[in-house]
Amino acid sequence: MAMRNERICCSPKDVRVVLNYGPLGFVQAVTEQIASDHMRVNTGSITLNQQAEVEIVMSIPGQKYSEHHRIAARVSHCGADGHATLSFHCCGEKTLLALLPYVSLH
Description:
Elements: E1 16-21, E2 25-34, E3 38-42, E4 53-61, E5 66-78, E6 83-87, H1 93-99
Antiparallel strand pairs: 1-2, 1-4, 2-3, 3-6, 4-5, 5-6
C-alpha cells in the first residue's frame, strides 16, 4: 500500500473540487492554494456571496485510487473575478492527512 507522501504530483490543482453552493447547486472550481484552515479556489465567472456556507466536495488523487472528502466551509473572501477563499475549522483527521501533500506553507 502506498504511503501518503508518495504522491506523484502535489499541485493544489490536482485536487478536484466541486462546491455545493445553495443558490446555484453544484459549482465546479479550480483549487489554487490549500492551507490547514482554508483554500483558495477559482470559480470562473461565478461570484460567491461573502460569508455564504458551502460544502467542499474533493477528489484527492493517490497512487492507485482517488479519495473523496467533504468539508463544511464559509466564503471568507470573494472577488468579482471568481477567486474565493473558503475557510473551514472542522476538518477531519483523514481529510487533513489526505490534503497534507498539497498544503502550502505560506
